Amino acid sequence: MNHSDLHAEAPSIAAGMAAADHGAHVQLAQTRHRAALVAGWDIAPGSTVLELGCGQGDMTAVLAEAVGPGGRVVAVDVADPSYGAPVTLGESAERLAAGRLGPRIDFRFATDVLDPSVGFPEGAFDHVVLAHCSWYFSSLGRLRDTLARVRPWARRLCFAEWDLTPGSGDRLAHLLAVLIQGQAEAAGSRGEGNVRTPFSRERLLRILPRAGWTAEACGPVDTDGLQDGDWEVAACLELLAAPERLAALSEPVRQLVLSQADVLRAVAEPQGNRALAAYALTAR
Asked: For 272, left (φ over 0), alpha (ψ -120 to 50), or beta?
């Protein structure tokens, strides 16, 4: 399915998401972004796809549209179905399962592919997809091990993530919010946000060969219109307002985080913080 076809279907896909009940325009923007990613990856009808870090199914729904009635998407996430707000993973999955795309999707929550009991036959999937989920891993080592684990199961890797290089000053708020959250997590102050191990595109390209993958293509992805800059600024400010999160940091790290927080408050807007750019790549 080409870019124009998926783009045309984006309103229908977005309307079928449970999160659309809480913000239809927000869901449509997120769906259109993922439609552009999938179209760029050239995932053909009839494909089998393993999606890691499916979350509430934003990418899952677009993948299910792309593979068509003859395809299949196995959507995996380590989180419990009760995780997420304002819509939980389980609630979103139930909505998708009840819709026209439901027969093409197999959701598997509370599932870690590094668990020896989890496995698939060699070559079971045409593609394995990780889209805006890799910063949720607890460490780069765990991401590398996961990429190595799934290598025999899929012929092709499709990957997308935010780019830590801001490119312009109006993206600094998103960058600072990400780095502050990452530093807190690295220093032992654990939270439940989406940012745990932010890493650069260059770092990913270094670990891919160690996981058995060879990158084919890597390029920038437009993110204008996405709300993630605002979401991560809000998540960071929530962290800074939690005494127990700050108390878990050593004094030097706490002072570093608080100084960066001062800069964040100076550059962040109440709304409309521009999201970082993203990059997408494929590997075999």
From this structure: left
* Average pLDDT over all residues of the chain: 96
pLDDT digits (tens, 9 = 90+) for 2-26: 556 898 999 999 999 999 999 999 9
64-123 residue pLDDT tens: 999 999 999 999 999 999 988 889 999 999 999 999 999 999 999 999 999 999 999 999
Contact 264, 173 (CB under 8 A): yes
Cβ of 242: how many Cβ atoms within 10 Å?
A: 14
Alpha-carbon span 103 to 161, nearest angstrom: 28
DSSP bridge partners of 129 = 51, 158
- Return the closest-CA partner of residue 129 out of 202, 191, 177, 71: 71
Reported as a pLDDT band with limits 50, 70 and 90, residue 1 is: low
Contacts of 4 (CB under 8 A, 6+ apart): none
The whole-angstrom separation of Cα 150 and Cα 241 is 39
Length, in residues, of the chain: 284
